Amino acid sequence: MAIVAVIFAGGASLRMGQDKAAMYGGVERLKECLHGAGVERCVVLCGSETRRSLFEGEVLVDPPEMKGLHQLIPWIHRRLAAPVLLVPCDAFLLSSEAIAAFLGSAPGGGVPCDENGRRQPLFAYLPQDITLNEFAESVSDLLQDLPSVDVGGHGAAFSNFNRPTELQHPELSNRRL
Q1: Domain chopping of the chain, boundaries
Q2: Among 63, 75, 99, 155, which is disulfide-ready with 37 (CB 3.0 to 4.6 Å)?
Q3: How far is residue 166's CA from residue 82's CA, in Å, rounded to a whole number?
Q4: How far apart are CA 83 and CA 93, in angstroms?
Q5: Which of 23, 71, 54 lies closest to 176, judged by CA?
């Protein structure tokens, strides 16, 4: 069964001060990376209905009763009934090569580690048959049973960015905002 990428693009980006879903090529750049890695279907979770028109393709509005990503992930996994690759919209360093390396190293699912060896659960690959703890209080708790995956020299690609000060990353210096 084909993997479905789910791009999280519904946040308010308050700490960044601008919409992260539009920075560094935005969601469209992420879709290109995913397609380049062989992921054919991408679903954008846009947050509220007012954001739907910001994105092209398959776009879903987050259910209003969801109180965070730890609730949204099990919901979308059930709804899609397929293996799911999570992708935050602030994955400014993500590349097709990094995605392919991760998926090749985690055929049974997993959570990639960044360049500092930290688990990055917002990039997790969830096999279709995984049972998620729907009573988890955080995304980390929700995905704690998935193995950590060393992605070799691609660790930086699995970073996300929340504040303008984090944009000083050397690999971002040659990318257009």
Answers
A1: 4-172
A2: 99
A3: 34
A4: 23
A5: 23
4-172 folds as: Spore Coat Polysaccharide Biosynthesis Protein SpsA; Chain A (3.90.550)
Count of Cβ atoms closer than 10 Å to residue 14 Cβ = 7
* Mean pLDDT, rounded, for 122-145: 93
CB-CB contact of 157 with 151 (8 Å): yes
The set of long-range contacts for 164-170, using a CB threshold of 8 Å and a minimum separation of 24, is 164/16, 164/17, 169/93
pLDDT in tens, 9-50: 987 665 766 777 777 788 999 999 999 999 999 999 999 999
pTM higher than the cut 0.85: yes
**What is the model's pLDDT at position 35?**
96
- What was the pLDDT predicted at 149? 97
